[in-house]
Specification:
The chain has 337 residues and is of the alpha/beta class. The protein folds into two domains: 166 residues, TIM Barrel (Alpha-Beta Barrel), CATH 3.20.20.30; 112 residues, no CATH class. The chain has eleven helices and nine strands. It has an eight-stranded parallel barrel with strand order 1-2-3-4-5-6-7-9, surrounded by eight helices. Strand 2, helix 2 and strand 3 form a beta-alpha-beta unit. It starts with 7 loop residues before the first strand and ends with a helix.
Length: 337
């Protein structure tokens, strides 16, 4: 990686619902985080689409994007992502065309293939279109067509949406998504915060097979990672136990509202659960400013990614704000100095 490159840093938000609080509290905290992130120089604030999860509030993703964009003024706001097989491309074009019309030059459309939920819930969402994930490449092209000015004389048009310059990103957690993003010449965001196994292979495939497009001349990679930063390594490790409990729920299927941190995580999980969670979140950075700086520099040197997108499932809102502040300081004073 060329060390003179500016590495953008951004936020991925799930509107995690914490124990003792409501989704409404999570939405207000998300906006507060976005306002702070804007002042700290974060480039974008993305919200992820998930369904049937008691601890994740970002199911109505487009609605939340409007809420966040309406409460901020500069930071880009978008989806990380919209799970396209859950939606008709025309509806997505109209929704994001509306958002872009309201907040011009600030809306991103990240698209994923996965359902963002379990298979039973996916059936409830998709009905007879349960196999619609196979249409993902064609549906992206449909979206691009709806956004193009050349679609003005078609029988089906996206109004608003038509003729708007709304950037599309491909999200993925596998090499298949990397090949698609490369073939379409679109920027690529990898979910290394929970699916790191194919990360290095995927970004290599993306770079090797990238075809320049009208919207992107060179590959552009966003790596999503978990970060828990605090004033000391010990404090960060303590806060990190909430993240570990969150992913334990993913591994076991026993989801709970985001739990407070614990002094001894080994009293919460089994050795098997620890191993499974550790593999799942190996792209995680925990510690003080010095520790985070050293570990992130190594990661950037190894991967050469263009942007880091951070998610932080920290229980205490003020501790979460402080973590993002420390990270911004790391980028501004250490990585991009």
């Amino acid at each position: 990686m060329n060390r003179t490159n500016h590495i953008a840093y951004s936020v991925l938000e799930l509107a995690a619902v914490t124990q003792g609080h409501t989704p409404a509290d999570s939405f207000h905290n998300a906006l507060d985080l976005a306002i702070n992130a804007e002042t700290l120089g974060y480039k974008r604030f993305w919200l992820a689409e998930h369904h049937n999860m008691s601890n994740v509030g970002s199911s109505a993703t487009a609605v939340l994007i409007g809420y966040i964009a309406g409460g901020t003024s500069k930071i880009r706001v978008g989806s990380g992502g919209i799970m396209l097989p859950n939606h008709a491309p025309l509806i997505v074009a109209e929704q994001f065309g509306t958002l872009e019309s309201l907040y011009p030059g600030r809306i991103d459309l990240g698209l994923g293939r996965a359902p963002g939920t379990d298979q039973v819930t996916a059936m409830a969402i998709r009905g007879n279109n349960i196999q619609s994930a196979h249409d993902f490449p064609q549906d992206i092209i449909k979206l691009q067509t709806y956004f193009s000015a050349s679609n003005a004389h078609a029988k089906v048009r996206a109004v608003p949406g038509e003729g708007l310059d709304l950037p599309i990103y491909i999200l993925g957690s596998s090499t298949e998504s990397a090949r698609l993003a490369a073939a379409l010449g679109l920027p690529y965001a990898f979910a290394s915060h929970f699916a790191p196994a194919q990360f290095m292979a995927a970004i290599q495939i993306y770079r090797q097979n990238f075809k320049p497009s009208a919207v992107l001349k060179e590959p552009y990679i966003i790596a999503c990672v978990n970060v828990v930063a605090a004033d000391t390594d010990e404090q960060a490790t303590y806060l990190f136990s909430s993240v570990q409990q969150f992913f334990r729920g993913v591994v076991t299927g026993q989801r709970q509202l985001l739990q407070p941190p614990v002094e001894d995580i080994n009293k919460v999980w089994t050795p098997y659960e620890e191993e499974a969670v550790s593999q799942m979140i190996s792209c995680t950075f925990v510690g003080s400013r010095a520790t985070i700086t050293a570990d992130l520099k190594d990661f950037l040197q190894e991967t050469g990614v263009d942007e880091i997108m951070v998610t932080s499932a920290i229980y205490d809102h003020h501790a979460r704000l402080h973590s993002y502040k420390i990270l911004a300081d790391v980028f501004n004073r250490e990585i991009n100095s």
